Amino acid sequence: MKQSIKRPKLRTRDRIFWVFLSYLWKDWQDVLIVVKPETVIRWHKKGFKLFWRYKSRKGGPGRPPVDPEIRKIIENMAKENLLWGAPRIHGELMKLGIDTISERTISNIIRKYRKKPPSQTWGTFLHNHMHNTFSIDLFTVPTATFKILFVCVIIRHKRRNIVHFNVTMNPAAEWCEVKSHAKGL
Fold this sequence. Notes:
Blueprint: H1 12-24, H2 28-32, H3 37-56, H4 68-80, H5 86-95, H6 103-110, H7 122-129, E1 134-142, E2 148-156, E3 161-168, H8 173-176
Antiparallel strand pairs: 1-2, 2-3
Helix pairs in contact: 5-6
């Protein structure tokens, strides 16, 4: 397809004019930029925030708080029966007719009453296991078109090298698989 409007030709006197103008006006290039990159990035962040705020407003206001009386009962059961876990306390609450609370919520409430034996420090652990320690990170990257890219990275700590790296828009179990021929494993 041919252009209907021809591009104007630059003549020698036009070039001389622009060279002369560039000596007189040092910031002439700033005028040519319609929108600066920082402005586009700020607009994109704001748009992304508004987009996800709109998407997440459809849900309810969140999880309702636990009734203080039920919380007190759970705390007392956890203090008086140190060997009971969340499933046992949940079962006892069901026997009492309290079925409005989940086992997961109970485990969050009783977590502070459990005493664990002291373990080795992180420094000792890392020193003992650094030769065969890997880190796996799964994270998301938002794109300019409000799509989400999923990223999987596996790093070997001994040599600090990347063993596996993969990016996709549709994650699945096979996507994270590291093939046996991968270097460094």
